[in-house]
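Researcher: We're teaching a course module on how sequence relates to structure. For the next exercise, students receive a sequence and then see the predicted structure as tokens, so they can try to spot secondary structure elements on their own. Here is the exercise chain.
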Amino acid sequence: MRTMGSHAAVKTYVCPGCNQNIPPGVAHIVAWPKDAGRGAEDRRHWHKACWERR
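Model: And here is the predicted structure for the students to work with:
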């Protein structure tokens, strides 16, 4: 898991916690399974609040 700052967030993602868009420019969490590589197919982008609620 890592935090993506607002300046680095340049694409729109869908948060798996709420199924809402995370628009460009919004800081958020990027997470992937422990046993997975860091390939893009394993990463999920979460709103910080959704990540903390899970």
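Model: If you want an answer key for the exercise: The first helix runs from residue 48 to 53. Residues 15 and 46 are 5 Å apart (CA to CA).
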